[in-house]
User: What shape does this take?
Amino acid sequence: LQAALVFAQAEAGTAACIHPSGLLLTCAHCVAETQSELDLAKTHYLLFASGTLVAAKCIAWDGKRDLALLLITAAQGLTAGDPFPAMEIAEEPPKVGTKLFCVGHPGSEDLECEEEGVATGYDVLHVSRGAFRGYAEGQDVQDNEEIGALMHDCWTYWGHSGAPLVEFKTGKLVGVHSSWDEETGMRRGVGVEAIREFV
Assistant: This one.
């Protein structure tokens, strides 16, 4: 939980710190929808679960895998060189049915309401439980551009993009939530194979 972050700007989204030096993993679409919109000079502001505010710059972006890496460039109230709380990336995908939890930022505005500005009432960070449901049949695990190949059933909302999917027993990162299947309601994400290849 301490290694989860939320975007503190208008864009809703979540990230995970994957190295104590301040390396952050999120979905590419949380940083830029397309390659042409990507601005590597832009500073992104995020909040750790502890409330620590950090500034970060995007250092890698992959629209096909739907993954981005940011590096923390400044942190409020921390001395230079202090380690950040981080989670370890799993070596391999879990077995189907493995229990997971998802730490994400649902977003403060109800985007399913016809009226603008209606509050969701959700907490800034929400922890939900579920399970790994395998990969979509016939989909390349490295291609998450249209919809994530990983399937899970942890509860998520609009701002959960980039939220870490963590194996319940080991505490290791096995994926990040990215989208959902409107036809089936199944939550989708980017699997650990794509994460490891990207990192």
